Amino acid sequence: MTLFSVAFYILASVIIISTGIAITRRNLVHAAVYLIISFFGSAMLFYLLGAPLLAALEVIIYAGAIMVLFLFIIMMLDEEKLEEKFFPIHQWTPAAVMSGLFVAVAALIISGDSDSQVQLQAFTAEPASFGRYLFQKHWLAIEIVSLLLLIALIGVLYLGRDVRKNNPK
Question: pTM of the full predicted structure?
Answer without folding.
Answer: 0.59
